[in-house]
Amino acid sequence: VAVKEEREGCKSLYGVQAERQEQAERSVLISCHSRTNEKNFLKYLSRHGDINKYFFYESYGMYAVVEFANRESLASLLEEAAIPSTSHESMVPFKSRLLTLRNLGSADVPNQQSGQQCQPQTTIPINELIQRLAREETIEQQITSLTDVYQLTEENSRLRFLVCSLLKDIAAAYFPECTINPFGSSVNGFGKLGCDLDMFLDVDDISGRNAKMPKSGLWLEYQMKRASSERAVTQSLLSVIGDCVDQFGPGCVGVQKILNARCPLVRFAHQPSGFQCDLTANNRVAMKSTELLYLYGELDPRVRHLVFTVRCWARAHGITSSIPGAWITNFSLTVMVLFFLQRRSPPIIPTLDHLRDLADPRDKSVIEGNDCTFVSDFSKIQLLSNTETLEKLLCEFFEFYSTFAFNRMSISIRKGKEQNKPEVAPLHIQNPFETSLNVSKNVNATQLDRFVALCQESSWLLQQSDTNTPRGGNAEKATTPWGLATLLMPSQVAGIKGRKK
Amino acid sequence: VAVKEEREGCKSLYGVQAERQEQAERSVLISCHSRTNEKNFLKYLSRHGDINKYFFYESYGMYAVVEFANRESLASLLEEAAIPSTSHESMVPFKSRLLTLRNLGSADVPNQQSGQQCQPQTTIPINELIQRLAREETIEQQITSLTDVYQLTEENSRLRFLVCSLLKDIAAAYFPECTINPFGSSVNGFGKLGCDLDMFLDVDDISGRNAKMPKSGLWLEYQMKRASSERAVTQSLLSVIGDCVDQFGPGCVGVQKILNARCPLVRFAHQPSGFQCDLTANNRVAMKSTELLYLYGELDPRVRHLVFTVRCWARAHGITSSIPGAWITNFSLTVMVLFFLQRRSPPIIPTLDHLRDLADPRDKSVIEGNDCTFVSDFSKIQLLSNTETLEKLLCEFFEFYSTFAFNRMSISIRKGKEQNKPEVAPLHIQNPFETSLNVSKNVNATQLDRFVALCQESSWLLQQSDTNTPRGGNAEKATTPWGLATLLMPSQVAGIKGRKK
Ligand SMILES: Nc1nc2c(ncn2[C@@H]2O[C@H](COP(=O)(O)OP(=O)(O)OP(=O)(O)O)[C@@H](O)[C@H]2O)c(=O)[nH]1
Ligand SMILES: Nc1nc2c(ncn2[C@@H]2O[C@H](COP(=O)(O)OP(=O)(O)OP(=O)(O)O)[C@@H](O)[C@H]2O)c(=O)[nH]1
Ligand SMILES: [Mg+2]
Ligand SMILES: [Mg+2]
């Protein structure tokens, strides 16, 4: 019952997005000196109106995110902001909501505590995490602790929406009705502090269906540039916006236009936030997968815990990587965890086909011929009572993929059952919405073998009593890694492998 | 006295520009079917408010320029305009004030006169001009008639400002305080129907001098991208705006970015207006030369008549060309005419140094270290009473340059006297504001020789009685060219040359 209530309290991803977006539109990003006096700073800003929320963080210098209660305050603040005075430098006079706080004269008294309390925007290093997990008393606690440390904070999430909103200002110059939404791990519930920021530009509101067309007589139409295909339009939009970001966008560096990819994108680093950004356009299927992952993550807390743990474990062993290649992606890995949870008995989460069957007429969504329909009302979803512990599930996950018939079978969260492989690829994971596609078609046999071997070793390790029980539980001295901590140590796992042979 | 009054009635170029700009902001450009019923068209548009002025013209199809009395009407019209419905085509959803009129159903009754009266936006061909001039009774009349036929019309001038305004909408997306002004022959009074549209983007209002900087305490500054120089900023702005025009701008084709030129520019053709457009940025000296030429043109009607005639004559003989090369430019030619008029006795127009001496303190203008100051109040300028006829002046012009000591002397409208040449170049015309530069340094000896030879031949021709008196003055049958008409016929002039040798 508790789980059910929790689910009913959940907001849909749309609701969350809309709220965050609206907050972001009322916010500014301010670069300030690390010794800025917080009280003076707030007093100075409050002249423009009430502040709902603010926080400081560090990223190549100190920054503050400030959310005003009203948009008028923002306008008033921007109205008063100055153009930098440059005696020997030139600059591009593009005005945005990224500002710098200056302090003329030394009249300002530095903070007693010498600076603000900063909100961390990156995770702790893996070694520190291992130390921290070693001090936990159960594997269950280790798993939830890992999630706590890694998951996006409230502040980080706000910062992500703010960066989208700043970028939207650039795109909205030409497409006033456009939106820029984050998708992927920034919002699907599985994002780790420091993960990239995937965004998509949606100008669909205006390009599409036209309600205003009259039945007869005269009417006026906008003249618009023709393009050979929707893809060409997308490339054109991204190309120009990429140039704008490159030439005008303050803090945006290393802009790359990757327009010939299957999904054309503009990649750049946003220095003030520290985010690596990928901007795509009209990428609505990806938004649907994001919603789906979010929904699964909200259905049962074990989903997110397990995904975080498996992602972290995979990253520690180089199963996944931040650079593209023949390895498994986080997205594939997440789908594998979801599939595993569908295969428990009773299943912990329903199949996608089941979620589709629960859908309302208004949930119907067909994108480029793909049926992306699934239920949006979480309370309609009935879960079966599976009470397996996280420890058990982690063990079973490794066991499950140690013995999975990868050579013959495909993983499908739509059916929740392995299917015969439709094509020869070492790893076949059916794309949930574009069902004829293989999400992991980049993965080669070597990488799959490494994954399977690591599953086997990790499964074996978790069954050893010197691994799965706490050791040296003295808080004073350095504790010896155990349980999940052991699983995250490459040397440890490799060592075991050596011994096994 | 009449001349003086005319001068006092003159608006400064700034005044003219401001008025035209404001009209343009209230206007739309509409592509319509050539059989559109004018009455229905106006009735349809008037629903949005009063129309101040409208006209039709043809340019790869029929277009209308419509100026509303109020901006609100424009907003209302755009609000109602539809997105084109495309079943098998894709397009870039950028909304501008370039629209298409559609007519659903054939209920519309075509105009009785089968279509609108169209305002011409190009000149008549040279052969027609020659025929027309042949029918005039004096050379004086031929010269004024040429100006009448060639000069920009009220409608063409409106269209030029409208194209600037449409382009400004694109640039203002990023630089809300920017302006785009026409310069060169579109506004200096010497433009011929069909001449190119030179524009410059000015974002200087916001990049420069900052009034808001406080004396002490905290303040906020916009973060802006740094660039290595003002030139780099200009290149950056033009590059992005060039891309926008290329990818989004309806009707804009053949976009070329010529960013490494001395004066970086974006060149494109605006199909709906038929204009070849050159967009430069922060090119304020060129605006000053435009103002100066405008002023000279307004001082005495003979200035414009002579410039039009000489430009037309030069073009007919390939002395000038629409493509860049070693030939004399229209700008150089204009300066040569002005110089000639300063050398009459008494001088018809004052020197630039004199215009500078008449300047008010508020006329002071120094651009990049160059003194561009000259008087803005036309009524302060006292002219001497020179009463030479246009015929006489044209003759004397050819004579003057037939014998000018190009090998030793430089032409300077600043001093109104030939100066010793500061450098070896076949033709040396001092740049009026950047006085160390030679406006005609591109001109080679061959081109200068051709110009001198043509001046000699034209001067000789004008002194022959079979050239300078009307022939076959029967309006019914084709008249034989005479006077100015003869001077415009390449075969004629070349023929004479043959005979002379
Ligand atoms: N259909 C499909 N969608 C994908 C694929 N790869 C990524 N996506 C979608 O794009 C989103 C962003 O991709 P990534 O940035 O690679 O993955 P992520 O989920 O954000 O995870 P991180 O590694 O933390 O960035 C994913 O969440 C998916 O929704 C793929 O191969 N197929
Ligand atoms: N200082 C300087 N200004 C120039 C030069 N060439 C052009 N300009 C300026 O730029 C303006 C536009 O140049 P053009 O389009 O070549 O000439 P134009 O006067 O518009 O005459 P058209 O041939 O009818 O276009 C001129 O009116 C001048 O103000 C030059 O060589 N030196
Ligand atoms: Mg991502
Ligand atoms: Mg020109």
Describe the secondary-structure layout.
The structure is a homodimer of 501-residue chains.
Chain A: H1 2-9, H2 13-25, E1 27-32, H3 38-46, E2 51-58, E3 62-68, H4 71-80, E4 90-91, E5 98-104, H5 126-134, H6 139-150, H7 154-172, E6 179-183, E7 197-202, H8 204-207, E8 217-222, E9 226-227, H9 230-248, E10 252-258, E11 265-270, E12 275-281, H10 284-299, H11 301-316, H12 330-342, H13 352-357, E13 366-367, E14 370-371, H14 390-402, E15 409-410, E16 419-420, H15 445-462, H16 465-468, H17 484-487, H18 490-500
Parallel strand pairs in A: 1-5, 7-12
Antiparallel strand pairs in A: 1-3, 2-3, 6-7, 10-11, 11-12, 13-14, 15-16
Helix pairs in contact in A: 2-7, 6-11, 10-11, 11-12, 14-15, 15-18
Task: Tell me what the structure shows.
The structure is a homodimer of 501-residue chains. In chain A, the strands form four sheets. Chain A has a five-stranded mixed sheet, with helices on both faces. Mean pLDDT of chain A is 88; it is low at 1-7 and 110-114. In chain A, 44% of the residues are buried. Helix content of chain A is 41%, strand content 15%. In chain A, a hairpin with a 2-residue loop joins strand 13 and strand 14. The longest helix of chain A has 19 residues, at 154-172. Chain A is an alpha+beta fold and 501 residues long. Chain A contains 18 helices and 16 strands. At the A-B interface, helix 3, strand 4, strand 5, strand 8 and strand 9 of A face helix 3, strand 4, strand 5, strand 8 and strand 9 of B. The structure holds guanosine-5'-triphosphate (GTP) (2 copies) and magnesium ion (2 copies). The site of one guanosine-5'-triphosphate has 16 residues of chain B, from helix 10 and helix 12. One guanosine-5'-triphosphate binds next to helix 10 and helix 12 of chain B.
